[in-house]
Amino acid sequence: MEQAASDLRENRRRQQELAAKIKVLRQEEALLMNILNLAERFEPSADTTGTGALPARTRNGTTGETPHRATTADAEGKPRQPLLGDVLMDLLNAHGEPRLAKELRDELLEKHPERTPTPQVVRNTLESLVAKGRIQRHKQQRSVMYSPTEPEPEKTAPEKATSTT
User: Fold this and answer.
1) Which helix (H) or strand (E) holds 7?
2) Does residue 65 surpass a pLDDT of 80?
3) Are 71 and 58 in contact (CB under 8 A)?
């Protein structure tokens, strides 16, 4: 009897863990669908001859006849969200000091509850911004912090005039 009760508790615990994993997988699926949507929207021209271009995928994973999924997303009536990188840049610019990825994700979840990226997605997006030169990475012992890059001071016209004479 005690063994059955223990097994039941363990079973319920594992069900909760799996439900949490399924939730994360669904979030990642939505993110990947958004990435595909963006990729299809910004591809040069669609290859209609069938010589190597992949057909657009619809939300349920089947191939559709529409050349651009952006029109499908617009037809659903959902407002477009800003890109995650732009939201993270806004959060970084709002603070004067370097921030941890965890702090940025927590603030993102607080200010944008409709967005629920995984910690890994936030870190990947931040690293992408580092690679593009939009933010800087700072390592302090085992922590990695991020801050916006400082804009280069633009040369004014009088400085150019004095440097040429």
Assistant:
1) helix 2-41
2) no
3) no
Distance CA 115, CA 164 (A): 52
Q: What angle, rounded to 10 degrees, do the helices at 84-93 and 101-111 form? A: 100
Taking the CA of residue 39 as centre, how many other CA atoms within 13 Å lie in the half-sphere pointing to its CB? 11
Percent of the chain with pLDDT over 70: 69
- Pairing, β 135-140 against β 99-100: unpaired
For 76-131, the three-class secondary structure string (H helix, E strand, C coil) is CCCCCCCCHHHHHHHHHHCCCCCEEHHHHHHHHHHHCCCCCCCHHHHHHHHHHHHH
List b or e across 7-19, with b for residues whose CB sees 16 or more CB atoms inside 10 angstroms: eeeeeeeeeeeee
CA-CA distance, 67 to 107, in Å (whole number)? 37
